[in-house]
Write a structure and sequence with these properties.
The protein is an all-alpha fold and 212 residues long. The protein has a domain at 60-201: Tetracycline Repressor, domain 2 (Orthogonal Bundle), CATH 1.10.357. The chain is built from 10 helices and no strands. Helix 1 crosses helix 2, helix 2 packs across helix 3 and helix 4 packs across helix 6. The longest helix has 24 residues, at 52-75. The mean pLDDT is 86.
Length: 212
């Protein structure tokens, strides 16, 4: 058999870093530990990413690239504001489901000893907000930028909430986290954000169902 492509090593390193960062935090993980899980020589981490800070930058950049792609895709569709918002929520849910460690790290980690990470997040978030406003918020005529600053974080926190508390949900409720759960999750988060508790109390039977 031939050698695996070089990008395989790079991908494994990112996955290993996201795995440990999401469980131990950025400061609690060493490069040697990441290299061991990725099954690469420790020098490969420096070769591809220059060290831990480079890994975190790569994780943050990849996350925002995925979210930007979702917003751009929605902008190209002829959807009502409500339909666009529902589709965005479900696209995000399945992105987090597929890349949970990476998404959690990109959202949460902002080590104070690395101001360049904060700067990167601000730059990427500004661009992401422009795309989000273009593809989603304009349809709701939210013209006050001060409201965007409040709504955006609340919106993303709501989408992420079930993943942040996933283990507790399983232990407390015995809920099986399967495809049916994610369908309900998409519908419930959409209804909650668009219509509040009344939207959940009176579910719309015609809601679009999303498949993974």
């Amino acid at each position: 058999m031939g050698k695996k492509p070089k990008e395989d090593s790079s991908t494994r390193i990112i996955q290993a870093a996201a795995y440990f960062f999401s469980r131990k935090g950025f400061s609690g993980v060493g490069v040697r530990e990441i290299a061991a899980k990725a099954k690469v020589n420790i020098s490969m981490v420096s070769y591809y990413y220059g060290g831990k800070s480079g890994l975190l930058k790569a994780i943050v950049t990849e996350y925002f690239s995925h979210v930007d792609s979702i917003a751009i895709k929605l902008s190209s569709k002829s959807l009502s504001p409500r339909e666009a918002l529902k589709e965005f929520i479900c696209e995000m849910v399945y992105l987090i489901k597929e890349k949970e460690d990476l998404c959690k790290v990109a959202m949460i980690e902002m080590p104070i000893e690395l101001p360049e990470i904060t700067s990167l997040k601000i730059e990427l978030l500004k661009n992401n907000m422009k795309l989000m406003i273009q593809s989603l918020s304009n349809g709701f005529n939210i013209s006050d930028p001060k409201k965007h600053i409040i709504i955006g974080p609340a919106f993303l926190s709501l989408i992420f909430s079930g993943f942040m508390f996933g283990n507790l949900i399983k232990k407390i409720s015995g809920e099986k986290i399967d495809s049916a759960f994610y369908k309900r999750y998409c519908d419930t988060i959409s209804s909650l954000f668009l219509d509040g508790m009344n939207g959940i109390a009176k579910p719309n039977k015609k809601e679009k169902k999303y498949e993974n």
